[in-house]
Amino acid sequence: MEESISSLPFRNSSLGLEERVEDLLKRLTIEEKFKLSSGRLMWFTKKVKRLGIDSFVMYDGPHGVRPDYKGERQCTYFPSAICRAATWNPLLSQEFGVAIAEEVRDLGAHMILAPGINIQRTPMCGRTFEYQTEDPYLNKILAVSVVKGIQSQRIAACVKHFICNNQETNRFTYSAVINERTLQEIYFPAFKATVRKADAWSFMSCYNKVNGIYGSEHFDLIRNRLMNKWGFRGFVVSDWNATVYTSTEGCINAGLSLEMPKANVYNVKKMQKAFEEGKFSLEYLNDNVRRLLRVMFLVGFFDNPDSLPKGTRNTPEHQTLARKIAQEGIVLLKNENELLPLNIKKIKKIAVLGPNAELKTSLGGGSSTNFPPYEITALQGITERCRDKIMIVNSPSDADVSILFIGLNHEENMDAEDTDKISFKLPAEQIKLVKETIKQNKNTIVVLINGSPISMEDWINEVPVLVEAWYAGMEAGRAIADVLFGDVNPSGKLPITFPKRLSDSPAHKSDKTFPGNDKVLYDEGIFVGYRHFEYNKIKPLFPFGYGLSYTTFKYSKIKMENYTIAADETIRVSIELENIGAKGGAEVVQLYLHDVESCLPRPFKELKGFQKIFLQPKQKKIINFDLTRQDLAFFDENLNDWVVENGTFKILIGSSSEDIRLETEFYYSN
Ligand code: BGC
Q1: Which of the listed residues 100, 113, 216 should we mutate to test ligand 1's pocket, taking the one with most ligand atoms within 8 A of CB?
Q2: Rounded to the nearest 5°, which phi and psi values hold at 267?
Q3: Of 231, 269, 279, 335, whose CB count within 10 A is highest?
Q4: How does pLDDT run across 372-385, given as a tens digit for each residue?
């Protein structure tokens, strides 16, 4: 690089961030600003050689880095987001963020297109596996942890897809018709928290429209709320080709800094023309470019690489983390007669069966595809664990125990991007296989490998043991064996309700609510997920927050510091948790809130706190939860503000949204 460029003020890392940004911004010509506003070759921004601006590089995705389409550069494949969410362990999400950022850095890139945090509105969404949960609070806590982890390495997170991309059908054209209260209470909280609590450096706009306007040119969503109200200082990038039906000026004015993967509305000629016609202001263009530059500085783009956190890739530490997340994310759904954990000393023969026993899940599903150096399938994991001790056979009638791996995969119309599922049921041949296997061996363990709720009505009652193993990353097989043989006590809890029937599910009242057409009516409003099931007294197959353990936890001694609470006071509630079983294990203690009387309908339960606690047998622990006024609030559209009414609130603490073990109440007064 020329001597003169390297001595310019913006290159001087001892100057303040904003000073460097402004220095670089003022040196750019308007054409260079246009050029910087769109990408090239899928993952790169255009260079401005005159000023030594190289390409800013961003890669997918939410389960590990995917730097290309062929797997020439391999990376760690972590469990799907739904599995990570099922750990209910924010620390693991943070460590995951650190690890993927280290891999991004090792590849010489600057941003990871993750986390994906759209609310799981329907179990039919093809990307349910890529998103975390149906609940805004759990979503928020985990999203903040991931973003903090990523950015601690000076790599930008890109929080996606802003907003209401809750289905894949017609994703380029539908308009989510949604009211303000629902946005505020359900769909915004996690996005907002990544800005307010984790200072997210980038957001990705959605493909769809929100109340008639495309996400990439949504002035109210981006400029007004995200930037002005929430205080976002980063930049907004379009989802790939999300700008096809938008206008140049619409996107510039709304606050879209970067159009990916190539210039369409941000084609230099189109931008020039729109500028000459006075369709956008220079102030907005400058603001958009300034934001991109700011993130370039934040990731150390112009700084000495030795001054930045170091990158690493495919390390044993990352692989161990992938296994740990899988171990904690696997959910034990049913365990009759305590068939699990399997006793390696007593069992002689195990039959391992089913279409998913040898399924590799890294390749496929769309942009969350990964190319890991290896992937341990369920069969491999079990075989490895049983080596020299238990014989693996094919016939259930010949075995002490049979383990049947069924579920979905990443093919079109299953758990895959760009399509939604076409059936809520498992393929008929799998249901047949379950029934036949049970007939031959009553000690049959069904392990699901899938990324979204499925119907189980036809076969669940016949199955004594059921495990939800999701798509659990490159160490999946080992983690599954760890849980089945009791080396790990399961502690995962469902981050999404499993309905009995699809028609029980909140988004499935009519074809106007799902899949809709040019409009998708979010008529269920705030009653998403368990909020809907509870309010309408519909019993799900497995409730939100549910998951069994090999030990038993006792909840007792609920206490509050004060039973009358005023506006500025913290509400502290404590309980005692004891492991009264024979095995060490972790419990996710969940706190739900209920507003006993309110002027607007409110859910019966809203998750407002949780803690994952590990206890040895006989060990006990006092667990404290602190709530604030905001935790009690609902959004009132008439006042266009959050409101807390005077009155009684119940605190419900338990092991799932259905299994409430302790209750107390307090009186709140403004
Ligand atoms: C997906 C994004 C992804 C992008 C780049 C889009 O189709 O919706 O989530 O990051 O492609 O691969």
Answers
A1: 113
A2: -60, 135
A3: 335
A4: 999 999 999 999 99
